[in-house]
Amino acid sequence: MKYENIKEGVFLERVNRFVARVTVDGEEAWCHVKNTGRCRELLLPGTKAIVSENSNPGRKTRYDLISVYKGDRLVNIDSQAPNQAAAEWLKAGGLCPGITKIIREKTWGDSRLDLYAEAGERRIFLEVKGVTLEEDGVVRFPDAPTQRGIKHLKELESCLRAGCEAYILFVIQMEGVRYFEPNRAAHPAFADALVSACQAGVRILAYDCLVCPDSMEIHSPVPVLLR
After folding, report:
1. Cα(127)–Cα(116) distance, rounded to whole angstroms?
2. 101 and 203 co-located in one domain
C-alpha cells in the first residue's frame, strides 16, 4: 500500500487517543493518530515520525501519523494498513494461487471477518491483526486486552465447522524480527483462545513487512511460538 504527501516530523505528545502534536517543517501542528492502541513504547517525545499531509482544508488535524522510528527501525502504526496490505498480498497469491474473489469485512455469525476469498472450490476466511509491540526482536499481540479478538477466534472455529478454511494473520508492521508470540502477560485469555483455535484447525500465520516512509507491504513469514 502507498501513501501520498509524505513528510518527516518529530512527535511531541499524544493529546488523546486520536490527536497528537508534531513538529513538521519547523512548525507545530495537530496530527491524527491512526491507531487507538497504547503504543507507549513508540510514541515518545522527540521520536522521529513520518506523517502524511491531508488535503482537506476543513479538517482540524493537518496531518496523519503514519509511522515512527524505534532506533533505526521504522514501525508503521497505521491500524488500517494491515488489512489493506493483507488484501494486496492475498490478491497477489501470497496465501495461495488462483484467488478469484476477495470480499472485505465478510459477515459471519455475529462478526465481520476481515477478508473472505475463493480459489476454485476453496472458501477462505482470514482475520487480520496488526502488530506493533516489539521487544528484543520478539513481537507480541495484543498490547491490551481484546475481547473482540477472542470473539473473532471463535468465529473462525465456526468457519471450520462449516467446511471453510480459516486463518488468523498477524501482520507485523516492521521488518527484521525474531518471532511472534501471544502477549500472555497483557491478556492470558486471548493467548489461551489462540492455542485453542490452533488445536481446532485455525491456521496461524505471522508475516513481517517492508516498511518505507511512503509504503508498507507484507514481506516474509515469521515463526510463531504459542508455548
Report:
1. 9
2. yes
Mean pLDDT on 144-168:
96
Residues 137 and 202 in one domain: yes
- 153 and 54: one domain? no
pTM, 2 dp: 0.95
Among candidates 190, 170, 146, 33, which has minimal Cα distance to 89?
A: 170
- Whether 1 is covered by a domain: the verdict is no
How far are the Cα atoms of 5, 95, 149, 190, 209 from residue 145, in angstroms, in the given order?
A: 34, 28, 9, 8, 24
Answer yes or no: do 154 and 113 share one domain: yes
Kindly state the cell numbers that stand for 54: 491531508
- Residue 140 binned pLDDT confidence (cut-offs 50, 70, 90): very high
148 and 205 co-located in one domain: yes
Buried/exposed code over 145-170 (b: 16+ C-beta within 10 A; e: otherwise) = ebeebbebbbbbbbbbeeebbbbbbb
pLDDT tens digits along 178-225: 999 999 999 999 999 999 999 999 999 999 999 999 999 999 999 999
